[in-house]
């Protein structure tokens, strides 16, 4: 009888060990849920030339990056939800578009939010393009 109880105890330990290994592989670290994040990609370009501008700092949701030589950027692991895009440009330049309000990006878990148009910047001494006029 002692031998049977000893095997049953070892069998229980083996089953619990396998169960723990299977659960650990179910995602996350077994303690915290998977992160609810996505990414944002876009381009920052010169309004007059259309050429991408490198070295511009872009941030959203506590994540920061810098544009590459072509003006492209990707913010990874941005928390899901509406995030305000912050662009830090050198003092000799001005942000043109969008001229009013914040750039708000809806980040969805596991997805990339690609900005459809470039964010335009001009040199500080240039005159910004005229806003569109609407006739009634």
How are the SSEs placed, and which strands pair?
Elements: H1 2-24, E1 37-46, E2 57-60, E3 63-66, E4 72-79, E5 81-88, E6 93-97, E7 103-107, E8 112-114, E9 119-123
Parallel strand pairs: 1-8, 1-9
Antiparallel strand pairs: 1-4, 2-3, 2-5, 5-7, 6-9
User: Total number of helical segments?
Assistant: 1
Strand content: 35-45%
Task: Write down the CATH class of the largest domain.
Answer: Mainly Beta
Shape: elongated
Beta-strand segment tally: 9
Q: Sheet bearing the most strands, described?
A: 5 strands, mixed
Low-confidence stretches are: 1-34
| Count of discrete domains | 2
CATH level-3 fold name of the largest domain: Immunoglobulin-like
Rg over C-alpha atoms, rounded to the nearest angstrom: 26 Å
Helix and strand content put the structural class at: alpha+beta
Question: How helical, in percent, are the residues?
Answer: 10-25%
Q: What is the CATH architecture annotation of the largest domain?
A: Sandwich
Spatial separation of the terminal alpha carbons: 97 Å
Instruction: State the order of secondary-structure elements, H for helix, E for strand.
Output: HEEEEEEEEE
Q: Please, what is the average pLDDT?
A: 75
- Spell out the CATH superfamily of the largest domain: Immunoglobulins
What does this structure look like?
The chain is α+β, with helices and mostly antiparallel strands. It has two domains: 1-32; 37-123, Immunoglobulins (Immunoglobulin-like, Sandwich), CATH 2.60.40.10. The protein is 17% helix and 38% strand. It is elongated and about 45 Å long. The termini are far apart.
């Amino acid at each position: 009888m002692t031998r049977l109880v000893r095997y049953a105890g070892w069998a229980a330990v083996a089953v619990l060990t396998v169960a723990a290994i299977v659960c650990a592989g179910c995602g996350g670290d077994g303690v915290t849920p998977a992160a609810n994040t996505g990414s944002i990609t876009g381009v920052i370009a010169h309004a007059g030339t259309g050429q991408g501008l490198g070295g511009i700092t872009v941030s959203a949701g506590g994540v920061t990056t810098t544009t590459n030589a072509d003006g492209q950027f990707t913010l990874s692991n941005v928390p899901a939800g509406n995030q305000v895009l912050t662009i830090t440009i050198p003092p000799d330049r001005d942000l043109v578009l969008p001229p009013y309000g914040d750039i708000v990006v809806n980040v969805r878990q596991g997805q990339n939010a690609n900005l459809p148009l470039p964010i335009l910047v001009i040199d500080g001494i240039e005159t910004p393009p005229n806003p569109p006029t609407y006739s009634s």
